[in-house]
Amino acid sequence: MTRAPIDSPYGDLPLDDWAPPADEDAPPPYDDGPPPYDDVPPGYDAMPGPGPAPRYAAPVPDAGLLASGTAASDDALPQHRDFTGADPLTVLKEVYGYDAFRGDQADIVAQVVGGGDAIVLMPTGGGKSVTYQVPALVRPGTGLVVSPLIALMHDQVEALLANGVRAAFLNSTQSPAERAAVERAYVAGDLDLLYVAPERLNLSSTAALLSRGRLSVIAIDEAHCVSQWGHDFRPDYLALGGLGEQFPGVPRMALTATATRATHREITERLGLGDAKHFVASFDRPNIQYRIEPKVDPRRQLVSFIRSQQEGGSAGIVYALSRKSVEQAAEYLRTQGIDALAYHAGLPAEMRARHQSRFLREDGVVMVATIAFGMGIDKPDVRFVAHIDLPKSVEGYYQETGRAGRDGEPSVVWMAYGLGDVVQQRRMIDQSPGDRTYKMRLGQHLDAMLALCETVGCRRQNLLGYFGQQSEPCGNCDTCLTPPETFDGLVPAQKLLSTVVRLQRERNQSFGAGQIIDILRGADTERIRQQRHNELATYGIGADLSDQDWRSVVRQLLARGILVAKGDYGTLALGEPAAAVLRGDEQVPLRRDVMGRPASAPRARRASASDTLAEGDRGLFEALREWRAQTAREQGVPAYIVFGDATLRALAEHRPAALADLDGISGIGAKKKDAYGEAVLEVIAAS
């Protein structure tokens, strides 16, 4: 195995930040396999699932369909009201407990109920599921939902069952007998919604099954997976364009939370939705605060951030690129007293299921995971998301950070970003399969992500601008609350570039950032003396800047393409704009990193769910939370399946005294009123 030289830039690499300090014989951090490709789908409709699904108990009385997706018996389907032909607003109130649709929901529902196709771009937490679930209940037949995520199928079916909706799924976690029970229910017309993975939908046996029943609507979730240039391409999505011919007259929907204009066009073309009506909601998530800071001491920074966010037992997700990094980070967090669990595709299926179950059901659990995890988890009360590695695209970053605050409550997303992240991502692009055009697209995705990291303006404004939406500065992200200082970086850039040029021309040598910085700072190291780099004209000309300052300069020049990282060890070379910089023909404004500020610095304290309550109502809110936790444990379901925090807050504010009063509480439909109404009133009366 080729070993990384001691002067390689990997001392800053995120994959090694969780390991003990490396010695000269330490292997490069890619021994675990080049992330993030270690979590590609292992096979048929298995992307990315938790392993065997936890066998939840029925969430409410008479909810006969278990989360396994099958009926306890063929006649054990939930007792329900037939909403065929009903007013969609009636369905919204009776099933979900909401008095009015939000944003474009009403128009989308009307389009689909009327038999029209729709393409829906709506942020995570914006209520996409309602736009296809309500039409599925109003139109005759069964709504077909195509979802690439097994875990998400489980969670959504659980939530639907809790609301009295007859829902099930078909996927590879089921036994033949379980699948047969679901198939019989579908053919008999006893299902309101059926979830399938695209891989299964493309089987001839599934097509034959669907033709034996009646479909009310076809909803293709995560539709951006059809984009071959997207961050989450799934080849089986390409075949979904034929559903219109296979099921004429059935309205089709394509839904996604992440799509640029180019991806939007690709969804339209590849899914055969040229006649669809387009609904594009704002991608803004105003309840999320965005923070990105320089990577100095990532262990300390991550622990500080998590501790600042875990008031009241908040749950969070920490994203890393590789399995090794995930396991090291989770282990370290546990040594710091943080209840952290690892999750990646290399863990045994039973362990993944156990960890997922704990994360969904317990307070204060932090999941450290590869990107495969969060995409399949429908947990609305994730209060924070952290990245210890740089995402490879803005779309990926937006989708991953979008797992926070899906309930609309204040949440924080944080990332530590350093020089090694840039080197690592550039190398991954160089080593990726594909032609020059493909690699160029990957480079463009990375450039946009780096621009978000290095911006001196509002991060939210930059993020929304990437998706083609205009906005004013938010006043709540880190750069708005603490505007970064900028300085003229022309001279430092020229010094650095000159050193790279002299090494190449005078010595025919290339080195990583570590050795270049040592030369500039005039370091007296054995490597400097061995290579006689103390004889270079640029030796010591950068002693006025610290090692961390120079790393910031290198990082920003790499982000702009003025420098490029080459080869396995990230040796530095000049990019195309470098000549103009050396001549002094181009300005190089750089941001000055603020070092040593803890992640918990009070830029803006995240409000807890109870902060908006009057002092006298907070005790009741906590009592309701305790009741919810106990009820969820008894029924074997996540707490949010019972009620969300917003519903508990409304109960604490309004203090209903009779069952009829619950009709005015958002989030309490008829089924949950019957299941939990008396118990809730008892808690309120006792407070």
TrEMBL record:
The GO terms describing molecular function are: 3'-5' DNA helicase activity; ATP binding; DNA binding; four-way junction helicase activity; hydrolase activity; metal ion binding
Which residues lie within the region annotated Disordered?
Answer: 1-61
Q: Which residues form the Helicase C-terminal domain?
A: 298-454
Q: Is DNA damage given among the entry's keywords?
A: yes
Where are stretches of biased composition, namely Pro residues?
27-39
Report the Gene3D superfamilies cross-referenced here. Answer: HRDC domain, P-loop containing nucleotide triphosphate hydrolases, Winged helix-like DNA-binding domain superfamily/Winged helix DNA-binding domain
The HRDC domain sits at 614-687
Show the ranges annotated as biased composition (Low complexity). Answer: 11-21, 40-61
Q: Which SMART domains does the record associate with it? A: DEXDc, HELICc, HRDC, RQC
- Enzyme Commission number(s): 5.6.2.4
Pfam families on file: DEAD, Helicase_C, HRDC, RecQ_Zn_bind, RQC
Is Cytoplasm a UniProt keyword of this protein? no
So which cofactors does this thing need? Mg(2+); Zn(2+)
Keywords carried by this UniProt record: ATP-binding, DNA damage, DNA recombination, DNA repair, DNA-binding, Helicase, Hydrolase, Isomerase, Metal-binding, Nucleotide-binding, Zinc
- Biological process GO annotation list? DNA recombination; DNA repair; DNA replication; SOS response
This entry carries the following GO cellular component terms, namely: bacterial nucleoid; cytoplasm; replisome
User: What PANTHER family does this protein's entry cite?
Assistant: ATP-DEPENDENT DNA HELICASE Q1, DNA HELICASE RECQ FAMILY MEMBER
Q: Which family does it belong to?
A: Belongs to the helicase family. RecQ subfamily.
* UniProt protein name: DNA helicase RecQ
Source organism per UniProt = Microbacterium caowuchunii
Question: What lineage does UniProt assign to this protein's organism?
Answer: Bacteria, Bacillati, Actinomycetota, Actinomycetes, Micrococcales
Q: Which gene encodes it?
A: recQ
